[in-house]
Amino acid sequence: MLSSTKWLLRLCNILNWIGVAFVCIVMVVLIIDPAPLAARLATRFGSNEELVRWSFVAVCALVVPAGIATNRIFTRLIAMIDSVVAGSTFHPDNVGRIQTIAWAMLALQLLDLVFGAISLSLSKVTGDYFGWSLSFGGWLSVLMLFVLAQVFRQGAQMQADLEGLV
Fold it and tell me: Average pLDDT by consecutive 10-residue portion of the chain (166 residues)?
């Protein structure tokens, strides 16, 4: 089960970087040569074409730090699986890994707020709803991960104390 989970996490990480690369290409096209999209944007958004284009560029730019944060989550989860397979679930390194995952999730939530601000301002200007809502589950998961890191810290300390007794 853990080996298939590890394989799936690696595949997701590869797809993450492919997605980031694709969005970066789209962003460069939007900046350098917007002509292919300009006609569509002009038809759809009229006089707001330039604002919409730069809003799309800004959203594309958010994908890079989101991809980095997602990479950190995937790689730390893979490392945790390796430590569980090795028999040391409450290894002190796992405390740092969970904290890294928590910080990465916090970064994703903050990037989501920036996306929401862009989306809501764009919706106001264009009259189209660009679909964003606050993710309470995401914020809750950030809190849960920071608490879980403390639980793992206690577990690692208890395991170290127990090994000291033996």
Answer: 91 97 92 80 74 88 97 97 87 92 98 94 82 92 96 86 71
